[in-house]
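C-alpha cells please, single chain.
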Amino acid sequence: MSTDAATGADGVARGGRSSAAGSALEKSLRILEAVAAPGGPHRLADVMTAAAVPKSSTFRILASLIEQGFVRAEDGSRYGVGPRLRGLSALVSGGEPASIEEILRELRRATGQTVHLALHSGETITYIRKLESEQPFRTASRVGMRMPLHTTAIGKSILAGLTADEVRGLIAATGLPGRTPGTLTTARALLAELDVVRARGFAVDDEENEPTIRCIGAAIVGPDGRPVGGVSVTTVTFLVSREEIEAYAPALRAATAALAPLL
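Here you go.
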C-alpha cells in the first residue's frame, strides 16, 4: 500500500486521507482567519477564496461558527468576527485596547459596581469583558458566557433597538423561557417593556436573570444605527435599590456613547 503523502495547495505534505484542502479543523481555522482579516465583514465568495475551501463546505462551516458565536452574519450576506472570537481574543491578549479598558474602568469608578461589556450575536449576547466591583460579592457571569436577550439588561436594550418584526421573529425562534419568577415570559409583557426602554434609553434587569441580582444596561449602537452590543452595571438587590441603580443611567449612557466608535 502506498504511503505517499498528498501535497496541499500550501505545499505542505499531508499523509493519510486528508485532502488538499486539509482536515475539517484546518478548514475551519482558515475560514476563521479569512473572516477576521482586515476589511471585513467579508462576502462568502471572498471568505471561500481566501480560505481555499469549497463553497458548500465554507457555507456549512460558517453556519456552525455562527451558531457557536465565533462568526457574525452581517447584512448583505457578509461575515464578520463574532462575540465568542472577540472574547477569546480578549482572554489571550489580557484585555481590550486601553481606550476601551479605560472607559469601563471609569464607569466602575463612577458607580462602584460590577461592569459588563457584551456583544450581540443572533439570539444571545456574549460577555467579552467583566470588571468586578470591590463589593464583597461576586456574580456568576464570566467572559465568554452567552445569555438570552430577554432576561438581561443588555439584551433588552439591544432588543429595543430592533424592529417589532425582528423582536417577534426572535420570540418565535427561541420562546421566552423563564430563568427566575421575575422573567418576562410573554410577548405582550416584553414588547411593553421595550417601549419603556426606548423612551428612557436604558433597560433594567430586576432579578429577571438571576435571583438577588439587579442590573442597568444600555446598548452600543453602530454607525448604521443598529445595536452591536451593550454595557451593564450590576449589583445585588440587598445593597442597591432600583432607584439607586437607575441613577447610574447618565454615566452608563456616556460609556456606551464613548465605546460606540471603538467597536
